[in-house]
Amino acid sequence: MAEISLERFSVLLVEDNSYLRTLLLQSLKALGVGNVRTVGDGGEAIEVLQLLEKDPVKAGMMNVDFILSNWQMSPVDGMMLLRWVRRHKESRHRFIPFVMVTGFADKEHVAEARGLGVTEMLA
């Protein structure tokens, strides 16, 4: 079986809990992901995505291959970030894969996230 290299992948990791952020970061690095930019909430993620368009060097990455975001954060949660990514006129990443990390695994929450265009749910 051929080995897949993820060293050229860039991930935007959005998590407000420092323990979970570190755990997810280490997991992505263990999988071989080359560039992971971490932020503490959806508002910071939006700022990084906007900066990425203007000055990738200042953004800390040249591109984003996918977003891994927690659902429940403050002040801007994962659903608000997803809504901005998929629908805002300034978003240049409308079709980027978006993985929502959540403890809300019930049918209603999954349907709500799917309705906004989440790619996958990690519960």
Summary keywords:
alpha/beta, globular, five-stranded parallel β-sheet, 123 residues, 5 helices, 5 strands, 18% strand, single chain
Please write out the topology.
Layout: E1 10-14, H1 18-30, E2 35-39, H2 42-54, H3 56-59, E3 66-70, H4 78-87, E4 98-101, H5 107-116, E5 120-122
Parallel strand pairs: 1-2, 1-3, 3-4, 4-5
Helix pairs in contact: 2-4
What does this structure look like?
By secondary structure, the protein is an alpha/beta fold. Helix content is 41%, strand content 18%. The chain is built from 5 helices and 5 strands. The protein has a 5-stranded parallel sheet, with helices on both faces. Helix 4 links the parallel strand 3 and strand 4. Helix 2 runs parallel beside helix 4. The radius of gyration is 14 Å and the shape is globular.
Amino- and carboxy-terminal Cα gap: 29 Å
Separate helix tally: 5
Radius of gyration using CA atoms only: 14 Å
Low-confidence stretches: none
Cross-sheet strand order for the largest sheet: 2-1-3-4-5
* Multimerization status: single chain
